UniProtKB/TrEMBL annotation:
It comes from the Eukaryota. The keyword Protein biosynthesis applies. This is Isoleucyl-tRNA synthetase. Keywords: Aminoacyl-tRNA synthetase, ATP-binding, Ligase, Nucleotide-binding, Protein biosynthesis. The keyword Protein transport does not apply.
Length: 159
C-alpha cells in the first residue's frame, strides 16, 4: 500500500534481483499478423518477480518504437522496445533477428494470457512511466504493488 511504501527504509547497498519473463499474446496488433511465427510473447522485465501472479496488464509507451524479433532459431517471436534490442542481445547472448518495427500505439489492440491463469485474457495499456533506460520497454502492471501501476489501474478501471 502507499502507506507501507512510505514507512519502508531501504538498505542502499541491497541489490534487487530482476527477471525477464515472457507472456504469451492472445490477440495481435493488426500490423504484426503477417510477420509472426508460431507464438508471440511480450518480454517484460521486472525487479519484483513475486508480483507477476498479480499482474493485470502489460504497460507500453505509445511514443516508443517496438520490434518483433526472433531469438536464435526459435519458432517463437518476441516484442521488445526497438532501442533495447542490442541490450537484450547482450543480456541473453542470443542472436536476435528483427522481423518488423512498429509504433507502440499499435499495442493498444493487443492482449495477453495471464502467466498463472491461462484462461484469463488481459490488456496492454499505455503508460508514460515505461521507458528504455533498462529492461525491455514493456512493464507488467500489478496495481497493488507500485504507485505507477496503481494509477494505471485507476485510470483504466482494472479490477
Amino acid at each position: 500500500t502507499a502507506l507501507a511504501e512510505a514507512e519502508l527504509e531501504y538498505n542502499p547497498s541491497h541489490r534487487s534481483t530482476a527477471v525477464t519473463a515472457r507472456l504469451r499474446l492472445t490477440r495481435l496488433p493488426e500490423p504484426l499478423g503477417e510477420h509472426t511465427l508460431e507464438e508471440v510473447f511480450a518480454l517484460v522485465w521486472t525487479t519484483t518477480p513475486w508480483t507477476l501472479p498479480l499482474t493485470r496488464a502489460i504497460c507500453f509507451n505509445p511514443h516508443l518504437q517496438y520490434s518483433l524479433c526472433t531469438l536464435d532459431s526459435s519458432a517463437c517471436t518476441y516484442i521488445v522496445a526497438s532501442e533495447l534490442v542490442d541490450s537484450l542481445h547482450n543480456k541473453l547472448n542470443k542472436t536476435i533477428t528483427t522481423l518488423a518495427t512498429f509504433s507502440g500505439s499499435c499495442l493498444n489492440e493487443a492482449s495477453y494470457q495471464h502467466p498463472c491463469w491461462p484462461e484469463e485474457e488481459l490488456p496492454f495499456l499505455p503508460g508514460d512511466h515505461v521507458n528504455v533506460t533498462k529492461g525491455t520497454g514493456l512493464a507488467h502492471c500489478a496495481p497493488a504493488h507500485g504507485p505507477d501501476d496503481f494509477l494505471i489501474a485507476l485510470k483504466h478501471n482494472l479490477a
